Give the backbone structure.
Amino acid sequence: MQNKIQGVYLVTDRPLCIHHRLEDVVRLSATGGVSLVQLREKEATSREFLELAIHLKKILSPFQVPLLINDRVDLCLASGADGVHLGQSDLPWYVARKLLGPKAIIGLSIETKEDWETLQKEDPSPNLDYLAVSPVFDTKTKTNTKTAWGLAGVRWLREKTNLPIVAIGGIHLDNAKDVIEAGANSLAVVSAICSANDPKEATIALKKLF
Amino acid sequence: MQNKIQGVYLVTDRPLCIHHRLEDVVRLSATGGVSLVQLREKEATSREFLELAIHLKKILSPFQVPLLINDRVDLCLASGADGVHLGQSDLPWYVARKLLGPKAIIGLSIETKEDWETLQKEDPSPNLDYLAVSPVFDTKTKTNTKTAWGLAGVRWLREKTNLPIVAIGGIHLDNAKDVIEAGANSLAVVSAICSANDPKEATIALKKLF
């Protein structure tokens, strides 16, 4: 599935879906050619999160767009989603790999250079599908993030790894091209699609940059 | 493991561990003869929750006291815990059973008579290890609970099911005997052990009532 880690990557945020319901944002984005969708829910109960995951999986299947679950390996298993996105305070990636098996898509956020060094010590060739440089730019969407990497950070990680790089944080049409040129294989966006008047057109516009 | 669902059942709550650290409360309670421990963490990250689960599992193994995880099936799988306790807004019990297999201990909170009716419709002989009557009495420990069942509620569920019944909510030494007489196989307590000056003695005192 490594070829799926390219292009436009949608990370969901229900409160930011101001013009359309989440499921419509996801459907429209898939119509516009999104490559991957990550369901992120920070307030939902496990039951609500699971039901939403099952619903989005049904929406995305006809488009063959993989669905990743933020953090929750159990909800990935229970919903039939394609994998998980892990932050540094989630389950260790090798534990998730063990529970999900070899076919699951597993991505890991790298928030600091220390995170990269830790990963190298754990495994110089980690069985991961991508690394997420997080955050590339400062963002209002997520407030618990570390110092922004900037374009120099994307270039730094690009020199270190052959794994696909997903860039996330403060990415929009005006700066997206620079992030790709710095070495990102995929651009993860939240508000640029979730809050768009036309999520399909917003996806198409971003996709054209690749 | 059905015989484990009897006696004193400790549900953890770190903020209520005022005299001892959580791990010491758990160790002392095991020394006092606790039958089962449920790790409940509402604020921890997945990583912290997992590390705590692995730590408590190590503490409890020599006592052969099972460790259950509240809600998180993935953390149960990853920590080697013995099962999960599920509330009505957690994963459906049959999904948890599928993910955890036949040997896991799975308990389900029944908060209303409607919850019982739903369970009966799902499966007249559900593959569960216990039902938790929640809450038996009003409690300050958990604020999102439904109307208290009272002793009449315990008697009502006792007539309906042959599954072990765990009573939870507002149980302390003064009312524990009544709850057992109403039909509870096990008494789940939080503050009565977590906040006790002597968690071992608090466990022994409750255990004597059986």
Remarks:
- Strands of chain B lie at 7-11, 36-39, 67-70, 83-86, 105-110, 130-133, 165-168, 186-189.
